[in-house]
Structure formats: structure tokens, C-alpha cells
Amino acid sequence: MIVARTRAELAAARARLADPVGAVLTMGGLHDGHTALLRAARRECASVVATRFVNPTQFENEQDAASYPGDEVADLDRFAAEAVDVAFVPPAHEVYAPGVAAEVGAGRLGTVLEGASRPGHFDGVATVVALLLDLTRPARSYFGQKDWQQTRVVRQVVEDLALGVTVRVVRTVRDDTGLALGTRNERLSDEGRRAARVIHRGLRAAADAWQHGERQADRLERAMRRELESEPGVSVDYAVAREPLALDALDPEASAVALLVAAWVEGVRLIDNLVIGDGLIDIDPAPLLAAPAPSGGPSASA
Ligand code: PAF
Q: 156-175: per-residue pLDDT in tens?
């Protein structure tokens, strides 16, 4: 595995990669959710580039970015174990080159839900994703369903800027209690992790109601809140049922839904969702994670 720390090193390494290239963009703090993205890329592409960059422009403040969990050595080990060809691990000035003023806006999608609670967050995501995709020039890029709204923003950026990248969404990886894996989970105590399980139960309650024919957003949302509010250790930011693509209000005739929750547990903001409908999630991580780590090269026809 080549570790590139500058744009020039990345360009040199990228030039030698066989196409198609799969890109997995991360901020480090890797867990099995990232492993699923890396394996999906490995399986579908001839080469894999992974990035590890804690993007300062998507955090509300420097303190939050500086304390983002992660260990570079452990993350690079995981990239290597997953047969990543090139790891791009740049300092901030290599991504945001001095003097470059370009910013990409996330538009309306960036102002609702997570965007309403974290103003500017998705503009930072849109900007860094556009830059990293431009630098890595993949055919496909892999994102986790857990950040559902982010996947929608990324698809929009890719289309608006005609980046020519296929966005592939991998279903959320959960632990055996249903808690969605997330880098910030490591800040939770055992008690916090126990309390946080209610998020998946809340989502399941609404999903069950949906499966039984409920199409009224307020009823689906009440089903989530009833469950979530039964857990005193959890403070809900939002628990909503939306149309999954534009995240607009749910049409009572809808055939698909995104159930989305953001909640605080022990001062840690957690998000999770269930997305129900045909063709919305591209890849099931279970078989990928059940298989042994890859040994390099494409394992299926690219
Ligand atoms: O999902 C993440 O880890 C980040 O938001 C991303 C896509 C790497 C952009 O910084």
C-alpha cells in the first residue's frame, strides 16, 4: 500500500492504478462500517484508494474537529489489511491548498435535518467530497447509509459538478444489539451504549407501522418518539419520516420512506435511519464482512 501525503504523491500513485478505481473517503476512526465500504470497493473495482482526512470545514468548531476520535496507525493498518492500494492521508493545506477559495454548497438538502442542527456542515462535506473525488478520480465511491442525508448531498454534488463518479451506498452495519456502528460511539460508556440501543428500537417501531400500511408521517414519528422517550438517557433532536430522496414531507401515497433520528446520549450526538423502498441501498455488507479480508486485486468482475 502506498501512503500519499501530498497532492503530487497522490497523483503519481493514482497514475499507476488500474481502472476502475473505487474510492472510500473517511475521517479515520475506522470500524466495521468502513471495512464494509472498503470491501465493497475491493470487490467491484480493480484498484482502491482510501482517504483519511478529518475535514475541518464540516465541524462547528475547531475543538470538535481536534477531538474527533481516531488513531492514524490503526487506521492505516486497517486500510492495508483490506488491500487498499493507495491511502491518501493529507495535512489540511494539501486539501485546501493555500489561496484556493472554491467552495461547494449543498443547497436546500444541506439546510434540513442535520443541516438545520449543524449549519454549514453539509457545505463543508460537499466541498471536501468534491475536492477528494477530483483528486482521486474514481469511477465509483462508497458511502454508508448511516449518513443517509450525506449520501443524498454527495449524489447531488456529483451530478451538479458532472464528476462522472457512481455513488454506491452500503447498508448500515450494526452491532448485535442493533446499535449502528459509528466513530463517535467510542465516546459512550457501557450505560450510554445500552441507552443508545433505543434508537434502533424507535426506528423499528416506525418501520413495523410502515409495513402494516401506516403512511401518515405524524403517526410514524409518534411511533418512534414513544419508544425513544421511554429511555431517559436519550434526548431526541429529531425523529422524522420523510420522502427518501429530497427528504421532503412524506406523501401519504408514498411507496418509500426514510425514517431518520438524531439524538444525544451522554453529550454525544448520534444519528441513525432506516430506509425502506426499492433500489435505494446498493450493497448489503453482511456477506462482505462474513468473508475473509481480501488479498488484493478485484475479486469479482469489475
Ligand atoms: O462520512 C465521513 O466520514 C465524512 O463526512 C466524509 C465523507 C469523509 C467527508 O469528510
A: 999 999 999 999 999 999 99
